[in-house]
Design brief:
The structure holds two protein chains of two kinds. By secondary structure, chain A is mainly β. In chain A, about 0% of the residues lie in helices and about 60% in strands. Chain A has no helices and eleven strands. In chain A, the strands form two sheets. In chain A, strands 2, 4, 5, 9, 10 and 11 form a six-stranded mixed sheet that branches. A five-stranded antiparallel sheet of chain A has the order 1-3-8-7-6, with no helix packed on it. In chain A, a hairpin with a 6-residue loop joins strand 9 and strand 10. Chain B is mainly β. The N and C termini of chain B lie far apart (about 35 Å). The chains are: A mainly beta, B mainly beta. Chains A and B meet through strand 4, strand 5, strand 9 and strand 10 of A and strand 4, strand 5, strand 9 and strand 10 of B.
Chain lengths: ~110, ~110
C-alpha cells in the first residue's frame, strides 16, 4: 500500500528565505504527484501537478521536482513571504488506484516578517 | 465561476442523527470524491464516483453513504453508525481517474454535540 511521508511536520523561516519541503512515497508506480496549499479551516488549493513522465514543474516562485526512482518530491518556494504561511500537502496517485489520492500529513509553514 | 461548492460550512450533529453534506460542481467533471481530514493527519478517502449512478467505497467507508444521481452532485450522508464523525470533510472532483488534476471544495466542519 502506498505510504506518503512529509518531513518536517512544521517549519518556521524568516521572510525572504527559500523554503524546501519534502515528500517521500513508497510505491514508484504513480500517475502523478500533486502539491496543495491549505489555509486554516479552508479547502485545498492545487499548486502544482507533476506527471510521472516529468522531472519538474514551475509556477512563479514555486518549483516542484519529482524523482520517481527514489520516491521523492521536493517543493521549493523562492523568497518566502508572510502570505506563504500555510500547510502544504503532497498527494500521490498510483497507477492501480484510479484517481484516488494518497496524502501525506502535511508540513505547516510559518514565514515571519 | 467554475468550482466546487460544499455546504454547509459548519454542521452540528446530535448523537444518533444522520446528517447530509452537500457537494456540487460545475466543472463538468466525471469523477468526484469525499475525503475526511483529522488534525495532524493526511486526508483519507471515504467514497468516490467515476460516473453517474456508480460509486465505490474508499478506505474508511463504514458509517457513511453516498449517492450520485446527477453528474454535478455527490452528497455524503454521515449516519449514526459512524462512531467518531467529528472531522473536516472535503469534496473533490477531476475530469477522469488517471493522471488528472484534482480540485477541492472549501470543506464542511462537522461537530457532534
Amino acid at each position: 500500500k502506498q505510504e506518503v511521508t512529509q518531513i518536517p511536520a512544521a517549519l518556521s523561516v524568516p521572510e525572504g528565505e527559500n523554503l524546501v519541503l519534502n515528500c517521500s512515497f513508497t510505491d514508484s508506480a504513480i500517475y502523478n504527484l500533486q502539491w496543495f496549499r491549505q489555509d486554516p479551516g479552508k479547502g485545498l488549493t492545487s499548486l502544482l501537478l507533476i506527471q510521472s513522465s516529468q522531472r519538474e514543474q514551475t509556477s512563479g516562485r514555486l518549483n516542484a521536482s519529482l524523482d520517481k526512482s527514489s520516491g521523492r518530491s521536493t517543493l521549493y518556494i523562492a523568497a518566502s513571504q508572510p502570505g506563504d504561511s500555510a500547510t502544504y500537502l503532497c498527494a500521490v496517485m498510483t497507477t492501480d488506484s484510479w484517481g484516488k489520492l494518497q496524502f501525506g500529513a502535511g508540513t505547516q509553514v510559518v514565514v515571519t516578517p | 465561476d467554475g468550482g466546487i461548492t460544499q455546504s454547509p460550512k459548519y454542521l452540528f450533529r446530535k448523537e444518533g442523527q444522520n446528517v447530509t453534506l452537500s457537494c456540487e460542481q460545475n466543472l463538468n467533471h466525471d469523477a468526484m470524491y469525499w475525503y475526511r481530514q483529522d488534525p495532524g493527519q493526511g486526508l483519507r478517502l471515504i467514497y468516490y464516483s467515476q460516473i453517474v449512478n456508480d460509486f465505490q467505497k474508499g478506505d474508511i467507508a463504514e458509517g457513511y453513504s453516498v449517492s450520485r444521481e446527477k453528474k454535478e452532485s455527490f452528497p455524503l450522508t454521515v449516519t449514526s453508525a459512524q462512531k467518531n464523525p467529528t472531522a473536516f470533510y472535503l469534496c473533490a472532483s477531476s475530469t477522469e481517474g488517471g493522471g488528472t488534476e484534482a480540485f477541492f471544495g472549501q470543506g464542511t466542519r462537522l461537530t457532534v454535540v
